Amino acid sequence: MIDQNKLNLILNQIKVEKRKEESISCDFFVPQKSFGTIQQKAWNQNLKKEKKVSKKTLNSEEEIAMQSSLNMLSACAKTEYMLTTALVKKGISKEVIFQTIEKLKKWNYINDVQFAIDYANSVKSVKGKKVIMQNLSQKGICDNVISSVISQIGSQTEAIKDLIEKTVKEKEINYELKAKIFRSLASKGFEFDEISSAISAVFRG
């Protein structure tokens, strides 16, 4: 649960980020099937209902905050941190942000655990555990959730082999190419031992 101390820390961090003029964007969309058909339909129906209610004249800061949040969430999934950051940049007060976030969590419109699971599943075929951990941390996911999600990924050797095979099509195999592939995969966050194992398997014989 987000509390006032956590919110204050986020606000301070945003002040630093504003100097860099950086904005938080959504780099993946949660597949509908990840929630299950029935759950996703119910989620969409409730979200549409809330948006219709919020389409009345927006006279209060609370209404503006909720409408903005629903608009952002209807586009793509966000964590508490990402949504809080976006609302701060819109000039919403921290008290109203706190109230809005708590309502959205109660309705399960924001769920950091589910976000982390869906994100990891959506990128684990092209990104290694190290990069996934880093990205989740940047999105405000707490360490214990990240550790739990990463532990469920398991070996990525097969995913690495697929990436290597796509890279080496019709290319001359030599030491330089293998070294280049290794560096590229390492930069994507894959484990060194899994990269070595995958390279050995692909170039065996």
SSE layout and pairing:
Layout (H helix, E strand, L loop, with lengths): L3 H16 L17 H17 L7 H15 L4 H10 L4 H13 L5 H12 L5 H10 L4 H9 L5 H11 L7 H13 L4 H11 L3
Structure notes:
With 205 residues, this protein is mostly helical. The protein is built from eleven helices and no strands. The protein has helices at residues 4-19, 37-53, 61-75, 80-89, 94-106, 112-123, 129-138, 143-151, 157-167, 175-187, 192-202. It is elongated and about 65 Å long. The model is unreliable at 18-41 and 53-57 (pLDDT under 50).
Would you list the SSEs in sequence order as H and E?
A: HHHHHHHHHHH
Strand content: under 5%
Low-confidence stretches: 18-41, 53-57
Number of helices: 11
Structural class: mainly alpha
Main beta sheet: strand number and arrangement? none
Tell the overall outline.
Answer: elongated
- Please report the distance between the alpha carbons of the first and last residues: 54 Å
- Computed CA radius of gyration, to the nearest angstrom: 21 Å
**Helicity range:** 55-70%
- Multimerization status: single chain
Number of strands: 0
Average pLDDT metric: 81
